[in-house]
## 1
Amino acid sequence: MDRYVILQQSPLTAALVLGQREQADWQFQEQMLATGTIHMLSISGMHIEMVALSLLICGWMLRLPKGLVMLGTVGVCILYALLCGANPPVARATIMLTGACTARYLGWSFSSLNILAFAGLVILSQRTSVAFEVGTQLSFLTVSVLLLTFPLLRHRTIPIQRLIESKESGWSKFLRGFRWLCWESIRSSFWVSLISAPLVWCSFHIISPISIVLNLLLWLPMLVALLSGLGLVLLFWLPPAAWFFGACCGLSLWFLSLVVAVAHKIPFVHFWSAAPPTWWLIGFYSIAMGITLWLGTKRQGARRVLLWGLGSWLVLGFVWLESHQAVERFLFKSGRSTLKVTFLDVGHGTSVLIQTPDGQHWLYDAGRLGDHQRSYQPIAQALWSMGVGQIDGLILSHADSDHYNAMEGLIERFSVRRFITTKEVGEHPSPSLRQLFDKVQSQGIPIDYWNANTSAAKNDLYGIIPIYPRSDTSSPPFRLASSKPKKYGAKSMSDNANSLCLVIECSNRRILLPGDLENPGTEILTAGLPIDVDVLMAPHHGSLTSRQDKLIAWCSPSTIVISGSYESLDARVFETYSPSGQDVL
């Protein structure tokens, strides 16, 4: 593939043909997920069905014996399924193909839905837990919808209609058949997208109306790429054939990539959102099943009732999500709500979610060590699982990538009302930080610069108060001691020493979030009168090289939280960060 596939599409070929999805560029995978075409990169039942259909058509065109064609098609598809790992969707398609070809060869009548049910029983008998896997659910769901909505194989005309069609010219027949096929394909694609949307929404937090059109538009280039890629795998030893298949595969995948990239940039064609509750998902499919069993799907009136019923339930899901914030604010006014601070597990990094009593969501830092392209994933999943769809304040403490490299991904997926950091971060020359600021500005998000004199979020019940860095010309909200702190020039202080430190107050409780504060910043902060806090997040992820005895003594926490990797599970760390018997989490 590296040698023969043109236009640098060999990694995508490996993903499409052999199921090696990790070969594909991660950014392109994200674009396919957002546009509802990610299934093309996973070896699924659709791949098996495409290969089988192509082999059957070739056998029919070559006038080969029916039995030989069916036996060869089943054999090739079984070998391909084994080559690609035979995951449940692939096994489903292979079992259905084998059953249908066997019935056709023996002259038996058969129902596609019965064969689908038989495939489900076979797969469940091997491992019942596959019923709870999203890929398996989507595979069986989409095939069921296609069998019920796409009439290509079961379309029948009455005798008078056949007589009228026999008098038409060949060109008229072609145009009529083409129009019919296009209309039925669009209709089936719409129903597949509608029925699968809630499951995709709840599993991947994405809604992609553009997928209705894209899946039809990209079906042909995907088929060409898949067949030419398989041809390359089989005939790589024959250079003329390998060059031909490599060119066809590369051109098809280049076109597919181009369409996906362009579609991803179109506004309002996909939406990221927190998922509705489980009862809503169960209700949607209960309505779909009930109406289908009651009225069927063949009559136009039945489909209209189904569309109105499911459409109304979808609207209810959106209304429920939007009204959730109003309910939280009502609870706040009733005095029955609380402030919650959640330290998200990101390994070595930091991300702290602050949920205020009035229903706001603030995120202090968002980053971790590791693959920067995927660093947003655990944070986004955690936020979505807690029903967060909007971030009222995205706070960046300082210019370390393990504190901000997830923010670009979060900005794409969540509605961020304002971005908060320090002037030192705003003037930092780091290219990745400049890229983040460009992203913030392109989304029209206001940028606020905080220091110890900033009038931040505070009301009668709670407060999010910056206490550092302080301005030389201002007084911090906490009164300084009589001893004057040392003077340090801005250039002599590291990024860590300029970390934005926040105190979160609620009901006479305090939490201190100091970022990666270190000397001389620690000396400047602790020069003031002590602030008693209940919880302290350990600066610098519980590092043993950065002593924090002075800070711990200054704020006297009863609990210290270390946002670090498994390396933090060291007896020396627990000993260092519990000088007065503090609980270390």
## 2
Amino acid sequence: MTDTVSTAITAQLEKLGIPARIDTDSYPSIVALFEEAFATYRLEAACTSVGHTLSYAELDRLSAHFAGWLQHDAGLERGDRVAIQMPNLIQYLVVCLGALRAGMVVVNTNPLYTERELEHQLTDAGVRVMVVQANVAQTAAAVLPRTGVEKVVVTEIADLHPQPKRMLINFLVKYVKKMVPPFHIPGALKLNNVLKAGAATPYQAVTLARTDMAMLQYTGGTTGVAKGGMLTHGNLVANVLQSDAFFATHNMEGRGQTILQPLPVYHIYAFTASMYALRIGAHTAFVPNPRDLPSVVKAFADFRPALFCGLNTLFVALCNNEAFRALDFSNLQVTLSGGMALTHDAANRWTEVTGCIVSEGYGLTETSPTVSGNPGNGVQIGTIGVPVPSTEIQIRDDDGNPLGLDEPGELCVRGPQVMAGYWQRPEATAEVIDGDGWFATGDIALVQPDGYLRIVDRKKDMIVVSGFNVYPNELEDVLVAHPDVVECAAVGIPSESTGEAIRMFVVRSNPALTEDAVRDFMREGLTGYKVPKSVVFKDELPKTAVGKILRRELRD
């Protein structure tokens, strides 16, 4: 950090009561961290999905069974890759924690992947064992013969429920709701049979080091070939402990409280939140499909969470839902926002509806993910807060020189949560991590005089109009305040006269809203060259599974 940036951040952390540095080496592995939780919170509820809850003791027992099967029956060796492809179910934690306990590397796999995307990830990672939920197994069945995967375990939605509930729910999902497309995977094993086999052959505890790889978390699929970010045990432990120190500002009692998790746990944001929940003895209530808004609303009503993990598009959708607005939010203490920029309008509306302020954070797959966040005792809407402990920040110009306060440039991060690199891609790693360990995020940011960070935009999303830099987030933040606008996205399109022109894609709640009305509204708050030349109305905007708007797809 430059002296002025470092001084400003350090002063603000001290003011907020957040330690500048913490001991991130107190656990040798993420396994040691969650095994401590198993011993400490044995009778507490650990996780729930589809109406069934596992205690910490049950999660301990079942994950140990899966670890035993991997070591003895599956014939895997330490460091082999295990892919998990399922939505938010309690089976995810059983399989994931079991794989980590056995010394394997977890490869989180998006259930919505196309055949091309899935084949690339399984092959690139060298996956030997895959665990897949039956509802999405059709794609895997088509791809597996072209990969090196040796064993496949299939789980149905209610496999860990007690009988007869298990049989009834699985029957309804498969035969009545017809949510399981037909598939055929020769030699596929059932999860419950695997767990029984693992119970007969107890797993051997593995000595793990902080430098050992824990996960291959794939990223960059929307901007090119997806790359596997190598997250070590030390990376994951550090980010959980950094988050823990940061959350002290929210004064939330962890043990026995519920964290409602609608965001997919195969995404690093939700994954680390689930590890943090284990650390503090909280109960994670999983919502299998965040796009099913009634199920999110019902989960809110059933669990009355103390902490909710969301993002801008989900906040907007929930606040527009009449049933959600009628709920009792008196137990909601913390609302986290990440994954995409939080607009002022969405944040203000959420607070108006729930009475809870949204704390926006910032992170990336490559940083496990948390870099910064808004503390409970100092939320500044429109910023990404201050760095979590033991995290260094630099803002650099195009020549790599550190900048001072209020000067926008590329945000660079150094800390124990930064990945080891991209799997089998040393050139790609060298492009983003320099010799001193600084990771270049590709985001344009600045550090305010008070030490808070603000994202200006993605470097590649920046629009250049007649030589002037225009940042889509600014335009979207202005327009989304219009009462007839549900959501919007700005992109640059080629222009003979200005190099690039701004096109605004808009989802409107009032069909009477016109292109001219949009431009007139934006002209009130933006200088002329920032007003879009064209406006396109759409029924919905393309998004990732996490809900992040795909500007690239709109440009294409």
